[in-house]
């Protein structure tokens, strides 16, 4: 019952009630001549009027308070009228924006649901915050994902967990994963979550099924290995037959030019087949390194001995830059493969250098690395070509007239990886190029 009073008070002081009082009073005043009734009408009119005035004053004082806290300079009278309208408009706009945001959120969720790529979002505590059905399907039944689960529910392999940690503090990381019967490619990217002030970034993980690509890649590698192997026999046959013809003086003078063209074509085919099968042996894992103890000085002598005839023929000087204390350094490496890698760099430097220029072959030690460098004074390599020279069959358009297969540097790159080394190139157009190969030193006793 204690609430009845304020309710009644509110009801009888509403603007409508005040208006009715005033209107009623006015009607009585106009409709009668009886002085007592007119006095009653006048009283009602005054009461309603005063009530209305009080409401207007209360409204104005409320508006004055609102305006006092609003950052509005011009607190003019019109604003008192405009404010409720503006308020309504803002509410409408707010509603519209909320509806739009909800629709966009729904679109985003649907895209995530229909994506073939698996997506898992981990927060700073490595807890699953989001995932899509593809992530669940690809990671398999042994991983049962749920919101709030730890990362290990999705990625139980120690390597995966290590990579997730690493990715959160640096650049994106990629690795492959076997989840029978599938092969998966996983990519972890640091993720700045909006409105989340946290010391550690979140991690966005995407998972792709690469089973089919892997099968195609294996088929490609097998095809190349078989084709290059099978082609070697007939090409050798042609070369022997041509050599017999040349030696046997069975060819008329008019046919000698054609014979020379055949010899050149066969030489080029032999070179190509050798490079292709070498690359395919590395790619298929058929090429195994056979490390042996070596001494740096004598290894370099043998290597330069091989390069000398080509350098002489092109009138290019090859200098060796080897610090004296390194000459006797014993180390372990596969002599054949290391020589093949360096020979590729040296013969390129000599091949692309102008006559009369110099190639400097240097070796130095940097901590746990032996750093080999081949610097030439050749034409250099344009920025566009530099991006592609380690690709199979890529040759810069400017070297079209110079023989080559475009496979040498691809072999160098693969072989460097096989030796756990790194290869890089620095170049300046018109001034020359330097190829650098870093090999982890495995010291040994000889
Ligand atoms: P190839 O030497 O048979 O053409 P490579 O794979 O060894 O193939 O080299 C690829 C390309 O890289 C070359 O065709 C050439 O355009 C460029 N290149 C490699 N080494 C050098 C160099 N020392 N100077 C300038 N260009 C080079």
Relevant terms:
single chain, alpha+beta, Beta-Lactamase, Helix Hairpins, 4 domains, 5-stranded mixed beta sheet, 52% helix, 18% strand, binds adenosine-5'-diphosphate
Give the topology.
Blueprint: H1 4-11, H2 15-31, H3 35-69, H4 77-114, E1 118-122, E2 128-131, H5 133-139, H6 158-168, E3 173-179, E4 182-191, E5 202-209, H7 211-247, H8 256-283, E6 292-295, H9 296-313, E7 317-321, E8 330-333, H10 335-352, E9 358-366, E10 369-376, H11 383-386, H12 408-418, E11 422-428, E12 432-440
This protein binds adenosine-5'-diphosphate.
Adenosine-5'-diphosphate (ADP) is lined by residues 348-349, 352, 376, 378-379, 381, 385, 389, 394-396, 399, 404-410, 433.
Task: Report a brief summary of the structure.
This protein is α+β, with helices and mostly antiparallel strands and 446 residues long. The chain has helices at residues 4-11, 15-31, 35-69, 77-114, 133-139, 158-168, 211-247, 256-283, 296-313, 335-352, 383-386, 408-418; strands at residues 118-122, 128-131, 173-179, 182-191, 202-209, 292-295, 317-321, 330-333, 358-366, 369-376, 422-428, 432-440.
Number of domains: 4
Shape: elongated
* CATH fold name of the largest domain: Heat Shock Protein 90
Q: Describe the biggest sheet? A: 5 strands, antiparallel
| Ligand identities | adenosine-5'-diphosphate
User: How many helices does DSSP assign?
Assistant: 12
Separation of the first and last Cα atoms: 107 Å
Which homologous superfamily in CATH is the superfamily of the largest domain?
Histidine kinase-like ATPase, C-terminal domain
Number of strands: 12
Topology as a string of helices (H) and strands (E): HHHHEEHHEEEHHEHEEHEEHHEE
Q: List segments where confidence is low: pLDDT < 50 over at least 5 consecutive residues.
A: 1-6
Rg over CA atoms, rounded to whole Å, is: 43 Å
Strand order of the largest sheet: 2-1-5-4-3
The residue fraction in helices comes out at 40-55%
Q: What class do helices, strands and sheet pairing give?
A: alpha+beta
Mean pLDDT comes to 88
Which band does the percent of strand residues land in? Answer: 15-25%
Reading off the top of the CATH hierarchy, the class of the largest domain is best stated as Alpha Beta
